[in-house]
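Entry 14. Ran structure prediction on the chain below.
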Amino acid sequence: MTHKRSIILLALVILLGSCKAGPDATEPTPGEVIPGSALISEVMAGAQGNNNHELIELYNPGEEPLDLEGWSLWYRLATSEDDLLVFEWSESMLLPPQGHLLLGRDGQDLGIVPDVVFTQALNTGNGALELRDPTGNQADALGWGGSYAPFTEGTSATALSNGVSLERAPGGEAGNGSDHDDNATDFILATEPSPQNSGSPLTPAADLPVHIELQAPLSVEPGSSFDLTLHVRNQTDLTVDETVVRLPVPTGLTVGQQPDGFQILGALGTWTIGKLEAGAERSLTIGMVAPWRYVTVVFTSFRVEAEDVVLPAFGSPHHLRVEGGVIPVSIARTLMGDTVTVVGNATMYTGGFYAGSSGTKFYLQDDSGGIQVYVPGGMGVVDVQLGDQVQVTGYIELYRGSIELIPLPEDVLVLEGGLQIEPSEVGLSQTVHDPASLYGELLTV
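Output, structure tokens:
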């Protein structure tokens, strides 16, 4: 009896010792929602024949979205003393629960749309990444190939090579939640990289009852109007109640036509659908207006939520390029440091004012205002006469109190359609007290 009682007591000790309870427990209690967090989940530093084919992927093992506003990602070589900024989230962007967010090298086709792009080159032999939270503290780190120690957890992961990525275990459909604070343990080499963005299926795999897609042009001209359409579908044979769509509006875009059922507060649009029958689809078209500048905006973090559905369904990001066309001179003057294209008629010919030993300058105006154009290296190359219609592409700069448009000589094009410039009549008082409204225009006082 004594022997049997000892075996039973030993079994109880082992069983109780394997359970985590009380204030030191690390496992969530039943019914507790796991908060969102961020881990570096995959890194690729080049492909065969293309060293710029690079990506960085983040993963959220929690059950709530994580807002990355204020977070930043940094890179360090083992042989360098510089912390190099890869990307900083200056505005709200959500990392989906049990989902991913993809950073792709600018200009590269990864086979999947990245949520954001970066320009910092990565190294295959050695390198390290540090993810910092809004307070500047390290949230996660990954070093490979004998990397910089403070950007590494435990032992460095294996060095990368072209066409191969480092992926956080367990990997694939099982997710990327392995976190033993040791890069060598948590990361494996993947000969077939599998980048995932915020709209990719959740991992571990979860069947969400609703699906959302966004349709919009790939490019529009500055200041133009365009339509954006949201599509929502119930993928089940059951009714989904209290269905709501959240659409963050990227900075610079404005809502021109607000349809019924859609409300916007600050930078967040809300489309209240309500009951969505089994297999039903709903669509909403929103009129948008592009900014008066050349920029790429990204629609991301848009999602659909529903009653009794724990995890929201995120849509795949969409990049919209604002490009081409011309910008009114009065607006171009406000875009300091930007590259712009304007079209106007010359109010002063080249060579009329001194512009250095090799440069030349002229002035032009359109219906909205005027501006000075300074062309470095343009002497004897650029020839603009009074009244010529001219297209100029260059950047806006403030020089000695005057706003200048500075192009390369080849970016000054004299077009057909010049006209005889008639000077506008202005009073002496306006030239003294409000000269900024007259810059670049041909006047008679």
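The two ends are 118 Å apart (CA to CA). Will compare against last week's run tomorrow.
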